[in-house]
Amino acid sequence: MNWDDLRVFLSVGRLESLSAAARALRIDPATVGRRIARLEEETGTALFAKSPQGYALTEAGQRLMAHAAKGEAAFLAGAAEVAGQGGPGLSGQVRIGAPDGVANFLLPQVCASILDENPELELQIVALPRLFNLSRREADMVVTVSAPTAGRLLVQKISDYHLHLAATEGYLAQHPPIRALEDLGGHRMVGYIPDMIFDKELDYLEETGVSRVQLGSNSVSVQFHWVAGGAGLGILHDFSLPHHPGLRRVLPETIRLKRSFYLVRHEDDARLDRLNRLAALLSERLRAEITRQEGLS
Q1: Which of 80, 84, 97, 268 is surrounded by the most beta carbons within 10 Å?
Q2: 96, 222: one domain
């Protein structure tokens, strides 16, 4: 069985598309199709179910995927060792997936500090308000707001963090005073679009008793800019508050939420020393940055 064919198979299996795999591998889609056809002929079975929606792995394809992914991890580990990536400095390209709150307010400065010490490293931040699929290699490691309980994953807790209801001084001066939870009814609320909350840990407003969100977005960044612009009240990360000095906590003794961040990787990556070292460094720097910014807020 040809390793190049397996590499193409892995890409199609993860991306569920010949054209997407071709773009990722930088080869012609027809070549991808021929490689898959050759692999299916060699194995004597269909590895994909083809439909207008794309290429879905068959049961046989799923079994081969598990073995091919292990082979890929072993190959990458060997390549890293031969290239000296187990040495003092980190190198190579690593993609980090994260909710956009982390991606906007924490990861930029953390990644920059890591690159200052490891100039041969290439870090990519994918900021998406949804769950990532590590088996399809959408990212090498992911920051999440809850610990996954299923799948072949490595999960480590990074840190707790806190959130408060907040508004600008200007908004608070121009609207009725807020002395208790029941006073929130007369104010415009900023929050998540209810049916687009991808993790129950993000359903912040449920804890305040607020049922109506007048300005809603699936993006933490959009919510932050609405609140920072004086458009209303919203639950914001404490680590985001220093980014706009005019923001003030509202009912801080009543509304104080605590959540946690986790770093998640695919189990097969445990043998990759550079990813182990980067994961440890990333967790340490994120923890320190959360503590620093929460102290400033």
Answers
A1: 97
A2: no
